Amino acid sequence: MKKIISVLMSTVLFLTTIIILSAGNIAGAIPAPEIYLTAPNQYYIAGEEITFDMKIPVDVIKDVVYVQLFIDCNTDVLKFRTADQSKGELAVTETEKGYTIDFYPWSMATNTETYRATLTFRVSKGDIDVNAHALLQYRDSDTTREARLADSLPNNTVFDADEVPRLTITGDLEIYRKEDTIYLPYPITKSELRSKISSTHKEYPVEYKVLNHKETEYALTGDELFVNFDGRQGEIVRISILGDADNNGIVTAADARKVLRYSAQLEPFPEFFDSGCDLDNVKGASAGDARKILRVAAKIDSFDIPDFTIIEGRYLTVAKLLNAGSGLYNWRCTVSDENAFEITEEITPPAPEDLKPGTPFEQSFTFKGLKPGTYDVHFELIANHEDEPIDEFYFTVTVHIDVPIGNMF
Question: Which phi and psi angles does 280 have, rounded to 5°?
């Protein structure tokens, strides 16, 4: 009898424990909602700007009125500059502890899109200590709740610009860059590409990451080049081979046939190849893209410098332009609207060991978008006393208020 009572008591205690634990889970063990604050591949560099990307998932937006982000920091070292958001409004308040930022995503009750915002800060020299957390104000409730902030911010160190390794081009390499992707208008082997893109610091060499581990000597669309520094992956660029629709590293008639299949919707057009194979300024794969690729494969045409889209207040850089005639001929840039950009020009001489009579210098032009619109950009290699250039090229830049930026080597 005592044994039966003992078993019954154990069972009651076990069931009671389960009930208590279950009640605890219902009351307080529901995982906190997660939002994201990141600054991928960036460092705190004195005299430069850094951007924090905020992302609020759809499943969070549908239940809350606003999100309040707290960035605790030294405001004399990390100074808020601007904020760009996809939809909605935000309010930034500087406090003794740092910054309080209230996000009000557009049409939050019915929004079915992830909310994104970019916060830009100016970095000054000094000690820095950045910490962040977020609160959520729920709909139909007077209470707030702490969010799980999945952040990926730089280590708390401010560097001088020359301390941080960057990717740089060495030798003759025709290339352009938009955001974190470099586009090559011809096939190139991995070894040749690695020999022409190096790190500014020899102690932090460029590393090469292969996509899908394809066994080929050629660089492939999706491969990556990056430099590790300060315990994290620093500047990174992804590779795109223009016209290489079948992703084997070379451009042939097979790529044109592949694009034709995409245009006929016989195969889905991979988003990853959109910029590399969409060549005729018509969104998506088309017969025009296929014709262009076929002409390039037959060596009767070449890929042109593309048009660019940047966000207002951000930058696009054109570099690796070589002057000629021992400096007699230099590149000159004109824009259809002289008020559209703030343009900064730099001239870089060759290394002392390469400096010989007639050796060209490199010119670079950085454009900061000042106002929305579409503008024609014209480059001429011309002497001051002459009216006709010996070389020239054109492209178009669209400055937009809410489209990701682009860069070009």
Answer: -115, 20
